[in-house]
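wait is this the right file?? whatever heres the structure
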């Protein structure tokens, strides 16, 4: 009886291993040592590598890589479906984890609101041009992505704010020090959301610190990015972009 039980237990364990392996096969992880160096911050217009319908987790948009004007995500729904204000739209696949996160934040006294979510290429162009007119091109490029280069175009990115305040997150000296901002910084990754532009990382993210800007990549990839200590840009580049074979020597 006990030997039979051990056999069944072993079989179950193997099944779990294979299942987990299949899960991560959908978002393959390549050792950082095998990847080429992260490009320095510069401004270019190279169409990003992963634009497939199911590649939203690993699509890299930065100051170099862009999505074309024709890139419009499918299944956009109101953020009100997650129990938040109707502050914008996201892909339907975001709603489940967004709702869970919003509920947990509310229970912790850190109620969230949506300030901005999906932006089309055209809308991003208007936002960017407005920033340029107000602050000049050099300053604008550090705070607002050029059209095609914004993570908001993916339909998985949200700018958050505090529901209990009329102030927008960028009107604080550091929104991460508010109840809502602090809770997000500590817990958002557990629900699949990663802060794209953390503090003191401008040299690798190419943008100023934005504690309100979070991109949804799913819980598994979010944990991998969080545990790596890398920014989203670094992690996606090293694991999914330009890969060099290991040095045979």
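ok assuming it is, sequence goes like this
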């Amino acid at each position: 009886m006990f030997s039979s039980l051990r056999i069944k237990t072993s079989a179950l364990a193997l099944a779990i291993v294979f299942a987990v392996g299949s899960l991560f096969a959908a978002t393959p992880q390549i050792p950082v040592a095998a990847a080429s160096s992260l490009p320095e911050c510069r401004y270019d217009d190279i169409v990003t590598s992963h634009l497939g319908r199911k590649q939203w987790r690993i699509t890299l948009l930065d100051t170099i890589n862009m999505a074309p004007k024709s890139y419009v995500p499918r299944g956009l729904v109101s953020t009100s479906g997650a129990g938040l204000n109707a502050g914008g739209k996201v892909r339907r696949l975001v709603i489940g984890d967004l709702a869970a996160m919003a509920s947990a934040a509310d229970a912790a006294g850190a109620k969230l609101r949506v300030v901005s979510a999906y932006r089309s290429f055209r809308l991003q162009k208007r936002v960017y041009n407005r920033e340029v007119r107000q602050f000049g091109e050099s300053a604008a490029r550090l705070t607002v992505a050029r059209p095609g280069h914004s993570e908001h175009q993916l339909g998985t990115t949200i700018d958050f704010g505090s529901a209990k305040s009329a102030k927008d997150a960028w009107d604080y000296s550091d929104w991460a020090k508010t109840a809502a901002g602090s809770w997000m910084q500590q817990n958002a990754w557990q629900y699949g959301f990663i802060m794209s532009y953390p503090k003191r990382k401008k040299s690798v993210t190419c943008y100023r610190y934005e504690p309100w800007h979070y991109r949804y990549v799913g819980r598994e990839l979010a944990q991998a990015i969080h545990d790596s200590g890398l920014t989203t840009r670094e992690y996606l580049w090293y694991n999914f972009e330009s890969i060099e074979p290991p040095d045979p020597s």
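The longest strand covers residues 210-216. so i think its the right one actually
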